[in-house]
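We treat protein structure as text, and this decision shapes the records that our systems exchange. The remainder of this section carries one protein's record, kept here as part of the documentation:
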Amino acid sequence: MMTTVERLFRTLPSVSLGVAVLALAACETTNIATAPPSRGALAVSSPSTRLAYAMPREPASAPLSVNIPGSPSRSLDSATALLRQAGLRIDQADPELGIVVARYAGDPSRFVDCGTITATDRSGRTRQVEAEAPSAVFDRRSGFQTFAVQRDLDLHARLVLRALPSSTGTWLFGVGTYVLTKQVSVPGDRPRTETIAFESGQTGRFAKGTVCAPNGLLEQLAVPPPGT
């Protein structure tokens, strides 16, 4: 059976990319101003802990557009090697068309920014975590019972590169498609899954306000370091 991620990618042509913007919810949140966040999963142990959310500080990174020395075929060969070195899977490399298509699956925090979650306990102590952390545990209270809510976030991304000749070398263009899948597990209930998708230069926003955007690092993987 085709997964949600596979269905979304099937609807997106390999060069002209379309986007489905759906909903992603990490927790009940309100907007606040925050200090610099810390990485990793968030574990909240007090039932009286308050959670608050702040959107990403930086705008969504734009699609890649850079002029680099060398021929288009050499530029694509270099980009392909760099993407493989970074752990991406190459789905297509066509020098005649000047196209490379690569995929990534794993930790969202490498390539997206979803803002920060701030947890404040009853004594006023706070802790911050990036909302794109791959795993987070929140304690919730219902009546006299306290139970743990597990939230897992997974990223599937696709990067499409196009190389065209220029008067000084090669124009390298790149667009990323980002598919985030969130699963929330509560004891005694079936896990709930939600998915959003967005492209380079765009954001995804869920109904309660969590915003996710590309941070630009995926597209920049294809650019060779200066002097190479």
Observations:
- Residues 4-27+56-114+152-220 form a domain with the Alpha-D-Glucose-1,6-Bisphosphate; Chain A, domain 4 fold (CATH 3.30.530).
- Residues 157 and 178 are 4 Å apart (CA to CA).
